[in-house]
Amino acid sequence: MISLNAATLLNGDGIDVSSLVAKVLSQESGQKAIWEQRQSELANEASLLTGMNSHLSGLYSAVNTLNDVLGPLSAMTAKSSQTTILTASAQPTTTPGTHTVVVSTLAAQGTVYSDAIAGAQTSVLPNGAQSASLQLQVGGPGGATRDITITSGSRDTLTSLVSYINQQNWGVTARVITDANGARLAVTSNQTGSTGALAITLNTSSLVFNDPVGGTNATFTVDGIPFTSTSNTVSDAIPGVALNLLGAYPGVQVQVSVAPDTAQAAQAIADFVSAYNTVIGDLNTQFKVDPNTSTQGPLAPHSPLRLLQSRLLADAAYSPGSGALVNLRSLGVTTNDDGTLAINLSKLTGALTSDPAAAANFFQKAQTGFAAAFANDLRILTSPTRGVLNLELAQNTAERQNAANSLLDLEDRLNAEQKRMERQFSLVNSLLESFPAQLKALQLMLGLTPSGFGDSGK
Length: 458
Fold this sequence. Notes:
Layout: H1 6-9, H2 17-26, H3 30-67, E1 76-80, E2 86-90, E3 97-105, E4 109-113, E5 131-138, E6 144-151, H4 158-166, E7 172-179, E8 182-192, E9 198-203, E10 218-222, E11 225-229, E12 233-238, E13 241-245, E14 254-260, H5 262-287, H6 303-316, E15 333-335, E16 341-343, H7 345-354, H8 356-364, H9 370-381, H10 388-445
């Protein structure tokens, strides 16, 4: 409540307009604090909803991974008994089994090189000659031939020859090799195997070339059947298996075992459980009652979150029907008292190892599989237009906009009210300040002795 001292109002000192206006407005600004508090609450709720929605999308992704027929549940592993000779990988469609591989030779790049000369800048033209020619064949007999014309001042040193060859896009790389004997020209194919075989088929320069090396195919057998390959990466010898040949050991048999990748499958299920527990944990946090304040989280009053919680719990308890695996529990995944899931890794690994096809069928059976059904529900729950949390976020955005508009309207009204009161109170202040002088003038006009009222000289 605002009070004024009547004894001092008429002494000519007037009133403190700014202070008085501020006091009046302070009584009307309580609503402003309410709107500001509401804005803060809505911003906090939006942050919580956004984080929860992101976690729900992560769960959708994890479930879709389990529902992918070419994903981790169908993954195969190919293991080599001699990883220094070869390594292997397998596609999901590969048939399990064991194969015997013997690697006799590796595919090699083709190389031609010259004898050493004095230096990289030494002329390669014969004495007294003004020109010479080189012809490089790429790809073995029948391969393309590349002509190199050498003239005085043009490509007549190893350095300039290397520069020229490397600019031609011939599928080769040239370089100068320098050692204690001098400098040599070396040209190496960018490809392995017979397609990378090199040869010097014409040479009128002073360079002397050695016999070509490399440019040979890999040779190996798979289950006694001979194969050749221009590359050391082979994908057509064992259907669905890629072999990476690393060493040639003609007398060593390498066993390549192809089997379901239970580790990858178990990890995908563990990722699902982790994503599911994150969302359930988000919801539990909102509904848990704080023993100190007897309050729940800010999103607890939002009934759609209860619906989301119920649907997720029902999805996790879903059983696709009969069979060796009928629910998550039969895989070693159990439900805790708070709705989160726990994994018995030993039981899970055993189930995946003993019957990987049954595990894949449990999750991926068309329409009725656990992951298929769960993914269908999550598709709705995460829909931009129908999803529970997206609808809540849309409502939150509308409420925040309404709060912002209401606060802006209130501030505009208070600003207008402030200006109006400042004008009115300034007018009153002027009258109060002039009152002693006007009273004194009136007393003099009436022949009265001026009172001491307002002797301040105003």
